[in-house]
Amino acid sequence: MKKLVAGEVYMLSISVVLSTAVLYLPFIIASVALQDSWLAVILGTAVAIPFTLFALALSTRFPEKGLEEIIEELFGKYLGRLLAVVYALFFLYSSALIIRQLEEFIVLSLMPETPPLAIRILFVLILFMGVYEGTLAIVRTNVYVMPVGAFVIVAVIGLATTQMNFDNLTPAFTVGLEGILNGGFFTTAWLLQIPMVILIFFKFIEIAKLKPIVKTESVFVVILTGGALLLGALGTIASFGPRLTADILYPSFAMARIISIGGFLEHIEVTFVGVWIAAMFMAGTAYCFMSILMITWVLGFKDTKKISFPMAATLFYLPAAIATDLSSVIHQLRVFFPTLCVIFGGVLPFAFLALAVVMNKGISPKELSEMQKEQENKNPKDNFGAQDGDIAENPQNGDNGQNQEDGNNTEENDDEESQSDNDKDDSSKK
Questions:
Q1: Where is composition skewed (Low complexity) in this entry (predicted)?
Q2: What is the value of pTM for the model shown?
Q3: Residue 193 vs residues 184, 297, 426: alpha-carbon distances, Å
Q4: What is the DSSP string of 345-372?
Q5: CA–CA separation, 312 vs 407, rounded Å?
Q6: Cβ atoms of 9 and 15 closer than 8 Å
Q7: Are 73 and 152 in the same domain?
């Protein structure tokens, strides 16, 4: 598989967070923090930054190794692979929950007469195509989806300002510290999806490209994503007020529907929904493929395509199993999903990093820098796009070898012709 760059991985993490948060998270936070939701988002973003740095430090300590390889090196073959299976189940659960959210939204808001199973079948078939093509197809497709999604979010909030009443944001600190902390917990949980994407996909980045700037970039990505969540919280509460935002199931979608400028710029929600569905496809595909990567490692397979179909096929049944109706979906998003994100995206990566430091596993930043210098000396030219483990070869080598072989064959043919002429001369003399 071709190598990636850090920016592509970071863009995928932004898509995963925003697509799963844009519809449901504003009303979840507003239900506990009311008009102080913006304070909760700022607090949650600040808490997510160090955990993202912990995950990045773990990835750079084991360059070109994925999470599954890291935990096996730390815990041994059997316990490490057991943890890999647990992570795989969580990733598969996340993918199924994304599909379930998509079904409920389409049935409730867009096509009430359409059976949810039909939506699931269509979505899973498209998802299977993504996971079958692998990492490069997923990440490179997201490079086009994420900027469009970010533009639409900013455009919707900007156009809806004519319908907003910013007095709804005051007074501040009315719900107390507990409400702000609860809202911050939800924000942190959603942002901790970023460390999980880093731990899975950073192994596809060349060591030479793991410069110190990736730390600054990771902090910027968390702040940027948290800023988008902050705009969503401010926009929905300013538009509908804290109480109504906490009661509306899809406040962001409702905010897009109220946009009306000059009587001609209306129905922006159509574009909003289209981009959101594309982003949800990216998030669901990414989670499913992350699960496939873990299971492939556990089973000892070298090709992820062998299990792409059976893993994707489970998503025909799993969404209905984890959430039978809308109330079950909301319960999953309020209780289980944020708790699991904090565990798998925050607590466990920090524990893995601490254990690696205590056991002196992996390499230090200084050793990583030395490896980068050695690699740059060996390969002065950028080999972006080379196959895994391959080094770009000088194309002239093959031509020189071929020319030398042709020269040897020519000399052999000349010797044979000379010998044949000598035999003819001897025969004529006789």
A1: 393-407
A2: 0.83
A3: 15, 21, 88
A4: IIIHHHHHHHHHHHHT-S--HHHHHHHH
A5: 55
A6: no
A7: yes
Q: Which of 427, 2, 419 shows the shortest CA–CA distance to 201?
A: 2
Q: How far apart are CA 48 and CA 45, in angstroms?
A: 5
Q: How far is CA 121 from the centre of its chain?
A: 23
Q: Are 279 and 15 in contact (CB under 8 A)?
A: yes
Summarize pLDDT for 274-304 with one digit per residue, the tens: 888 888 999 999 999 999 999 999 998 888 8
Whether residue 409 has pLDDT greater than 70: no
Which among 167, 100, 136 has a CA at the least distance from the CA of 2?
Answer: 136
Residue 389, φ and ψ in degrees, nearest 5:
80, -5
Q: Are residues 341 and 402 in the same domain?
A: no
Assign 386 a pLDDT band (cuts: 50, 70, 90).
Answer: very low
3-class SS of residue 214: helix
The confidence score (pLDDT) of residue 412 equals: 47
The number of folded domains in the chain is 2
For residues 369 and 414, membership in a common domain is answered with no
Q: What is the mean pLDDT of residues 332-341?
A: 94
Residue 339 lies in a domain: yes
Per-residue pLDDT, 149: 85
| Confidence bin at 380 (pLDDT 50/70/90) | low
365 vs 370: CA distance, rounded Å: 9
Q: What beta strand segments (E) does 194-316 contain?
A: none
Q: Which of 42, 74, 53, 13 is nearest to 355 (CA)?
A: 74
- CB 255, CB 235: distance < 8 Å: yes
